[in-house]
Predict the 3D structure of the following.
Amino acid sequence: MTSGLTAVQITDYEVRALGGQWPNLFFLQKERSPDQDLRQDLKETFSKFQGSKLCILILPRHEAILKELELPSTDPGEISRMIGLQIPVMVPFDQSQVVYRYFCTKSGKPGYSVVLAAAVLNQAIQKYADALIPGSLGVTDIFLSFETLSVFIDRFLIGLVENGDSVFLFANRKSSELIIYQGQKAVFSYYVPFGQNDIADNMSEFGHEIGRCLSDFERTHPGVIPGKLFYDLEGVEAAELRKFLQSEHEVEVQKIDFFSAVPDQVRGLVCKERMDSSWAALLGFFAADERRFTSFLPQGMHSSKIRHQNRKILAGFFSSLVAMIAAGSILTGSIFHRHESYLRSLKEQIQSLEPRLENIRQETEFLSMLAEKTTGLSMVEIISEIYILLPEDVFLQYLGMREQGQFELQGTALADQSLSAIQTALASSDFFKKVDLQYATKRRRFDKEYTEFKVTFEKAR
């Protein structure tokens, strides 16, 4: 399955790649600056790369919005359409701006499906894919780290989840991902804005953030309480981490070697290159047997294989045209080419309109349903009011709406007074009530300090 491919993951501080065929892999890791042009950076990184130029892109957790949904259908087509109608609720974008897929995580009641819906901005995917082109890499497919990490756990750590529900923490230098297992099935994932570089110095905030994730999971999954948390972090002792978790979470914390069960060739590479636990996202892709991953490759974004086929078709066409010229059929060939181009243009125009018409139809259905269930302010008015109230140096990462008019706002503020300003503005607005700051965590990147925050509030009318 993975022969002849390279798995790539890009963050704002480094580029990672694994190539080869399991378990004989080779490794690439390069530091990068967020201020440097990504396209030029990747061109230099892969200019002398010996691996395959066909690559799989593994998206980091922070690029995806996840939400568990219980839907009244078991038909895959209907489930996909229902999730499409949920997109404006999950993210402040419409269907045309995101790629959305779903994972079947567990069985629902008869006639229902419980799925994990995932949405990724087209813009984020295109940014990475375009940046790889100067390095002569073609993106053949795109997967989420949630799924490849789950494969790694299933292959090498599954013995740890035989009894009860568990949590696995994978950390790189700047951030972490929590994978939550219910029995022997991965059911959810959380992004944690702390990594190897700052966990030791911010243990209290780190423990509080993990506790917040566990509280959110237990709230949305009544009766499911993860009993164990497994991690692989240098310089962090289990007792120390347990001390800083919120007291209401009676979770057993265990420090283990995540790579102890991998093949010797892989373990040798891990030890030699001092890979942290987050490399399991790339290793999980290569370790998969016949498992099919969920593709987040947008429609219309050609893989290198398709582009190669198109080049062959064009080459054949031009060869035929030359032969026609040589035979003295210049006029006939020219007329044929003009008609063919015109027909092709019409076909492309029709095909380009079909997704827009489908989006309009689905949006109309969604707005009709919303109009039936919503009284008072419209969603357009509410979202417009939120964006009007935002100070210029406050940036949104997530805007979610729950039932009964409850909203959740997550983002970053460059100045302390800006966070206070948005709280005051929301509380003073006629649109909202019960404004509550859930958390505010100070972070530093290079010489700049900023605050990550979460605010909840309700619709006033």
